[in-house]
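User: Here's a chain of 190 residues. Predict its fold as tokens.
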Amino acid sequence: MLTKHQINKWYTGLDMTCYKAGQEKPGWSKTDLGVKIKRMPTKEVSGYLQTGDYYLYLNDYDYYCGILAERKSIADLYGTMFSKRATFYKEIDRFGADERFEEMIIFVEGTVEDFMIYQPTFHRGQFMPGAAMKIKDKVYHMHTEKWAAINVLFSKGIPCHFSPDAKEAADNFMHVSEYWLKRNHDDIVT
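Assistant: Prediction complete.
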């Protein structure tokens, strides 16, 4: 059994690559994450359907970190939960079928308060992120529906980590991944 100090030393010496989904533009950078970033391989190359936005791979061990990150802005989270929910649930199903990952976490680039006060607009029935929504000249607040949507994710085992900004969301992804890797050290090295 290694000491905490030995596991920390092992972790700091890991050669890791972060794989990023092709649709993530610009997304988190090497500066944000502190590791090199590559585009996720296609199913033809990897044998897996792309799922999530980011994951870490341990080059020295040919091993995947069990954390799958989904990065969302406040507008993205709202759109996902209220206009693209069925599509996102299919992504959750792909995650569940992919044995490389144990946990899918949504890293939100904004606070819970930001999400609660966010009000999208609709133009000719289409979701238009970023401004106030007016229905019959009244601003429509969806606090109860927003909490219900977040609770549905939790019930599916998909937590949301809210952060004040993109940099802190990226840091949270790396901290959660670090914890997972250290916790699974013995399985990784054997």
